[in-house]
Structures are given as structure tokens and as C-alpha cells.
Amino acid sequence: MTALDTPLLVLDGLTVQRGEIPLCEEVSLNLSAGSICHLIGANGTGKTTLLMQLAGLLPVMTGEVVYQGAVSLPIQPLYVSHQLGIHPNLTVAQNLTFLLNLYGITPSVTDIDDALAWVGLQGFETVSSSHLSAGQTRRITLARLYLLTPDITPLWLLDEPFTALDVDMVVRMEDRLSDFANAGGSILMTSHQAVGVANQVLDLSNYMV
Ligand SMILES: Nc1ncnc2c1ncn2[C@@H]1O[C@H](COP(=O)(O)OP(=O)(O)OP(=O)(O)O)[C@@H](O)[C@H]1O
């Protein structure tokens, strides 16, 4: 097996767990370069919990997470929470800059302009984030995807990235997810709507306790 064949992320016998309460058991998954995996399951199954465990925000008590061939957590993926993490006292450009700084990127003015234009927020750079609609606020959090490549963050964990987006923006997002996967990235994402670009599905309903 070559390095390229090594799965980016392997979950083996993982328990999805909130505190002492197991939600799903024996969850297994192989994500390789180019995988876009749609994480599905009814409300409350544990989808967000699993993403938070992989992001290192909740502990993994049982099972193994192998990332890039090594047993290691936290794995420092890109994690886009459905709780947006946008500071209302910062401008749109300041919030995006902060989100990129988290991944070691110091964006130029052109980077910020291009990323905001990609999500349709051109002209909003100096607007207070508290003045935006729900969909516009979500677009700030997604604008960072425009600048993040597999070299920087090979794994994207996206929790309901399409919520509150209009149809055009969903299409643009799907194109970006495809481009990222074609460039060698992997994505594990939740969505209560169909994800046309997904090439894998993990249904947590099959693992409920
Ligand atoms: N902050 C919390 N504190 C304690 N328990 C929680 C918390 N958030 C969720 N839970 C519990 O964990 C379980 C899994 O929640 P989680 O958010 O992972 O589900 P989900 O599959 O993402 O649901 P949804 O589709 O509604 O977003 C829920 O049944 C809920 O009772």
C-alpha cells in the first residue's frame, strides 16, 4: 500500500457519546482522498456529537480514530459548526480574518475580497456582522472554504453547511466541495437535504444503541 492509498481517516468501533451516555456504538468508516461522505440519521442520533468528537471538542472514550495513518486526536481538521461562531461586534472582514487565522492563514485584502465575493458578500467588508441575515451570517463562515486547500486542511468536518442558504449558494458550495475533493481533500458532512456531490454515506441510524 502506498502513502496515497492510506485512508485519511479511519474510524474503528467508535462509540458516539455525550458524557456518560452512548448514542451509537461500533461506528466504522474509511475516508480517503476524494471522499465526500454524507453523514445522515434522524434528529438526535448523534451526528453533531460525532463531528465534535473528531474535532477534539468531545472525548472519544471507546474505539479508535486513525488519522493519516497515526492514532491521534485531536486531528486538527477544519470544523465548521452549525453554531456559527461569528462575533457580532466584528465586521464581516474581521470575522473572516479571525476564522482564517485559526488555521495559520494571514489573508491579504485581496484574499478577503475574493472570498467574500465568492459567497456574494462583496461590499459587506466593513459592515457589522450583527447587521446580517441568517443566510448572510452563514456565508461568512463558509467564505473560508474558498481559501482552504487540502495542503492546509486535508479534512473538512461540516455540520449542516447548507442550512439557511439559497439554492444558488448551495450549488456554488457543492462545486467547491467537489473541487476540494478532486484536489485530494476529504469531507464528512451533515445535511438534512440531499448532497448531490456525496460519493459515500454514513447512516448513524444503523449504529444506535
Ligand atoms: N449540549 C448538550 N448537552 C447534553 N446533551 C446534548 C447536548 N446537545 C445534544 N445533546 C444530546 O445528544 C444527542 C445527540 O445530539 P446531536 O446534536 O449530536 O444529534 P444530531 O444527530 O446532530 O441531531 P440533529 O439532526 O437534530 O442536528 C441528543 O439526543 C441530545 O439529547
From TrEMBL:
PROSITE patterns: ABC_TRANSPORTER_2
Spans through the membrane: none
InterPro entries: AAA+_ATPase, ABC_transporter-like_ATP-bd, ABC_transptr_haem_export_CcmA, P-loop_NTPase
Annotated keywords: ATP-binding, Cytochrome c-type biogenesis, Membrane, Nucleotide-binding, Translocase, Transport
Domain ABC transporter: 9-209
Pfam families (UniProt xref): ABC_tran
SMART domains cross-referenced by the UniProt entry: AAA
Gene3D superfamilies: P-loop containing nucleotide triphosphate hydrolases
GO terms, molecular function: ATP binding; ATP hydrolysis activity; transmembrane transporter activity
Domain of life: Bacteria
An individual GO BP term: cytochrome complex assembly
Name of the protein in its database record: Heme exporter protein A
Organism: Psychrobacter fozii
Lineage of the species this protein comes from: Bacteria, Pseudomonadati, Pseudomonadota, Gammaproteobacteria, Moraxellales
